[in-house]
Design brief:
Radius of gyration: 22 Å
Number of domains: 2
Largest sheet: 2 strands, parallel
Helix content: 40-55%
Shape: flat
Structural class: alpha+beta
Order of helices and strands: HEHHHEEEHHHEEH
Distance between the termini: 49 Å
Strand content: 15-25%
Number of helices: 8
Strand order of the largest sheet: 1-2
């Protein structure tokens, strides 16, 4: 990608999920914050376009697309690895010889405040695991493998497109909402990127219309 509109990442995730990619790497998510077309530019453009330069109005308009991007990342039917740049500061510390020296440290990700709490595992490159071996990998794999696999957004998408019962769609919508997957990015039956919630709602409306016409 050469531009980093959050909505483009949503469409890319929908396409990757439909193609069956088991793992997606976003390198880096910081670009979708401060890069060309990223959130900060979206806010700036919205503020100038509709709110007389007021950034509060710009955030009000841009925040939903950010939420949709994060929901699409979290709901992806596979593993998502995300990298982020960190803001750096210089501090003066005492070295092993007892002398004061400046040291550069990472403070927080170049993304919105608290975004690291959205993810299951967060690793800081400032922390070094010396010689991580197969035992380290096996421990993480065992932890990830615990529990019963849950249906993915793609499973719910397929169920929505396959059913001809409106009540089943209502129940499906409730289940998807409870799991926080309404904003998961999927492809509809025409190949367009939509949210899972919108697809279920459209499918229900289409069934009501067709069944009403038949009656």
């Amino acid at each position: 990608m050469h531009a980093f509109d959050p909505r483009d990442l949503v469409r890319a995730l929908a396409a990757a999920g439909a193609a069956g990619y088991a793992v997606v790497v976003v390198d880096s998510l910081s670009h979708f914050w401060m890069g060309q077309g990223g959130m900060l530019e979206q806010v700036d453009h919205a503020a100038k376009r509709s709110y007389g330069g007021n950034s509060f109005g710009g955030w009000k308009e841009a925040r939903p697309m950010e939420r949709q991007m994060i929901d699409a990342l979290l709901a992806y039917p596979g593993h998502v690895l995300v990298t982020m740049r960190t803001k750096t500061e210089w501090v003066v510390q005492e070295n092993e010889r007892g002398r004061k020296e400046p040291k550069k440290i990472g403070t927080k990700p170049e993304q919105r405040e608290g975004i690291e709490y959205e993810f299951t595992i967060v690793g800081d490159m400032d922390a070094v695991i010396k010689s991580p071996d197969e035992t380290f990998g096996e421990a993480i794999l065992e932890w990830l493998g615990n529990g019963k696999p849950m249906p993915s957004a793609l499973d719910y998408r397929d169920a929505a497109l396959e059913t001809d019962v409106v009540d089943d769609l209502r129940e499906l919508h409730t289940t998807v909402k409870r799991r926080g997957l309404l904003n998961a990015a999927v492809l509809d039956d025409t190949g367009e990127s939509v949210t899972l919630g919108a697809l279920i709602a459209k499918r229900g409306n289409d069934l009501k219309t067709s069944q009403g016409e038949q009656a």
